[in-house]
Every structure is written in C-alpha cells, then in structure tokens.
Amino acid sequence: GLVSGPVRFVLGSGGHIAGIVSPPGPKAWHLVAESLPSTADDWPAAERIWRRCMQADPNDALSRYNCANALRHQDRAQEAAILFARATALDPQLADGWYNLACLAQDRGDLEAARKHFERALACDANYTDALFNLAVLHLDRGDAASALPLFEQYASRDPHSRWGRAAQEAGGPGRVVL
Length: 179
Known about the structure:
The protein is built from 9 helices and 3 strands, in the order βββααααααααα. By secondary structure, the chain is mainly alpha-helical. Strand 1 (2-4) and strand 2 (7-11) form a beta hairpin. The chain is elongated and about 50 Å long.
C-alpha cells in the first residue's frame, strides 16, 4: 500500500482505492473521502468511507449528504433520500440537501414534495440557480406558466452565461424570458 500521513491506502488494479486502514478520527475520514476520484468503481469505496465518517461523528450532516450522493451514483435512490433527509434534519440550512431531496422526489413523480424541497433550498440560498431553474421547469411541467415565468427570469438574470441567460439577452435583455 501507499502510506500518506496517518492514513494507509490500499490500491487496487488501475490505481483505484480498494480500501483504507483506520484513520484516527472524523477529520481524517473526511480528507480521505474527499480525495476519492469520482469514477463508477469508486462510489462503493466512497460510500464505505462516508459511512465511517458518519460513525465517527453521528451529528455530521455533511457525512450523510456525501454518503447520500455516493448512494445516488449507485442508483440507490431510496437509501439516498433517507440520508439526504437526515442531513437536512441535522442542518436545515443545507441547501444542497434540500435540492437533492427535490430531485429525488421529482424522479419518483412526487411533484408536490419536489416543489417544497426546491423552495426550501431557495430559502436557504436565494441564488441557488439550479433550484430556481428546476422549480421553474416543475411549474411549467404542471402547466403553470404564470409561476414558471418569474422563476425563469430570476434564473436568467442570476446565471447570464447559461443557455437560458443567453436566450434572455437575445430576447431583449437580462432577466427577460419569453415562453
């Protein structure tokens, strides 16, 4: 293996991290987990390490959030939703947690839950452009263009280099969207 500080990495074929030998505490587990490459082969390893982070600090919202992301990348949406919910319970201001809960709810067709979670993400961070855009799309998909339009306009003005921002500029100025 390769020794790096107090952490011992066990490398598998192709240089992927196949295992790790007991870092001394939560901070070391976080450093290890954050250093994992995000390839399909590494998501199970990332999950194992984030679970160790959760064991080391049961009140750490970010460990649950990151483990949920690892689960989501392994197509384990139901388990991911549980951990995103726990992460947001521990840290109600975790905008990314609310956003991911919204996306999972949208994926399973629960548009009302998705709307509430997108709105909660925006309450945490009013400039969260992905939440703005997805909430606008959700309203549009529900046939509610009147609610979608101001959200698209906000999104276009806050992210002028996006496809929608460029379209708004072409339509007559920043923040102007024509549906």
